[in-house]
Design goal:
The protein has 148 residues and is mainly alpha-helical. Helix content is 46%, strand content 3%. The protein starts with a helix and ends with a helix.
Length: 148
């Protein structure tokens, strides 16, 4: 499968963070996006609510200027982070972000990473490498009904 350099770089950084126990959804330099952006926190100023996919003024300026951070536009970064938080069990809303308990549990962090990888694949137009349905030759009943 052909991938993009930004995808490869992001996966490498997330893999390293997960196995070095430096992945933390409550720290903007150690969350999914923080690790993708080399443990910098500047991306956190692009939204007003943790987990939001709505850009604030600063984020909109960067987005409209076409700026990219390690290959990702501001809105893409927010989508990546929101998928990580949802995968970790956060409840996200327009004006809130409710965190679950035991965020250092490796199973919770792994679930978050699975969601991030799916999002990264979607952003780059790559088949979801986390989807094992092809391996087992399984097609979801809903997908079958929609394709008829």
């Amino acid at each position: 499968m052909k991938t993009t350099s930004r995808f490869d770089s992001a996966i490498h950084k997330l893999y390293k963070a997960f196995h070095n126990n430096t992945l933390n959804p409550e720290n903007c330099t150690q969350c999914a996006v923080g690790n993708i952006l080399d443990n910098k926190d500047s991306w956190g100023h692009m939204t007003d609510i943790h987990g939001s996919v709505k850009l604030n003024y600063v984020g909109l300026v960067h987005q409209n200027l076409g700026r990219k951070f390690n290959g990702y536009r501001p809105l893409e970064l927010l989508k990546i982070e929101a998928s990580f938080l949802k995968g970790c069990g956060y409840r996200l809303g327009r004006n809130f972000c409710h965190k679950p308990d035991n965020l250092k549990d490796s199973d919770i962090l792994f679930n978050g990473l699975c969601e991030v990888v799916s999002t990264l694949c979607q952003l780059d137009g790559i088949n979801n490498i986390m989807d094992c349905s092809a391996l087992f030759k399984y097609q979801n009943h809903v997908q079958k009904e929609l394709s008829v």
